[in-house]
Queue: 3 jobs
Job 1
Amino acid sequence: SNMIDWHYEFIAGMWVPLGKLKLIGLHPSIGVSLGVKYKKVLIDGSMIASFINSSNEYNIVYRGNAISTKRFFRWYLGVEGGYEIFRRKRHEIDVISGIAYDAFQAYHIKK
């Protein structure tokens, strides 16, 4: 249709590190995604946070000093775009691509 269709989702999951980052452990994640669809074109923005400090201590280097920490806070900001390629009644298939900034904080700087 020619109408603008707004959509949203609430996100809950788990951040699961691989390789050497397994030491940091699993962390719950929550977030929200908001988007719009006009005709067959989709645009979404997502924000996700992961939290709870690591159960293991790990070492970082800050200003040339080795520091042991358990701190963990992750944030993800993403934008996705897509295009509907198939629709039948209430079902559709979309091709989606996006870009995101994904980082975590391992140390809190005391000022």
Job 2
Amino acid sequence: RRECPELGWGSITLLDPGDAAVLAHKADWDGSTVVAVHSLGEDPRTVTIESEHPLVDLFDEEELPVDGGRVKVALGRYGARWFRVRDLAGLSLTTGLEKALNDWGVLGRLP
């Protein structure tokens, strides 16, 4: 959770993936957003999530593009994927924690 404070401290919003076997939500905290999508079904599936910005997978950095305000997310059986929302400039949105540490001059001194 240290790398995703949005999940621990953020405001949670349920998303509609259009599939009853999929739980999707976003967590917003201090200007940063994480989207989590979880399949509760035994078959692989692809769902569509509304988003104005591309989503970057937190585990393999794959970027899912936006098409008409929607992003397609492929899930394996009982699969889960977590994403950070990417801003329009093509840079990952900095987490509030990273921003605060940088503002305090601490970020560059951490090992």
Job 3
Amino acid sequence: SVIGALRNIKESREITIPLMVQVLQESDPNLVLPALHSVAEAGEAALPFLKEALQHKEASYWACIVVGEMGPAAKETIPLVVDMLDHEQPECRLQALGTCHESHKMHAKP
């Protein structure tokens, strides 16, 4: 699994997160989405990695997609997603806005 591979890498996240971003940016979108989906399926095991990735300038976009897919299981990451609303890249702000909106809908009372 993707999470298993991330856990087995002995280098610091300062090295692995930029490498992950480069791979995601250079990969075929048909391969990227299943990889992100497998991170989301890891649930709580993915949260430490996602928290770090949400604070990384280039990784935050991808991490935000995963948080959105995870739904309520990733609720503890929402403050970091809210911080992304001030991101310098418009696509990151847009992704954060969508993720916040979905999170709000899941937690809103009918």
